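job 3f2a | input accepted
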Amino acid sequence: MESRKRRKKRSKNHPSKFKVRVRYKYHYYRWINTQDYGSFKDIYEKYRDKGFSFWCADLPPEYSSQDGTWTGYRLDGDKTHTESTLKRYGRHKAWIDSSYKFEGKPVILVYNAD
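job 3f2a | predicted structure (114 res):
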């Protein structure tokens, strides 16, 4: 029998492990690749001390260069606001979104949390 050279199978570099369906600004639906997703409560427990900020996907963080302010609905502003948003939107889908940044930090968006 003739021996054949076997090709070494390379593993892909997976910076984005998951592909999820998301909604932006109330009516833009898209499939995106994300590093992680889950319920807002689970994702908050996992990433709250890792430099992420949490925002509503329908009102994501956007910088206005005219007056130098940020617009959007932030879910983790202060302690009482964070507790109330976790109680209200804790079961909603949340994902790490690489297309948005807030003051240089990565952003986690939460579905239908306005």
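job 3f2a | The beta strands are 18-24, 28-34, 37-39, 53-56, 62-64, 69-71, 93-102, 105-110.
job 3f2a | closed
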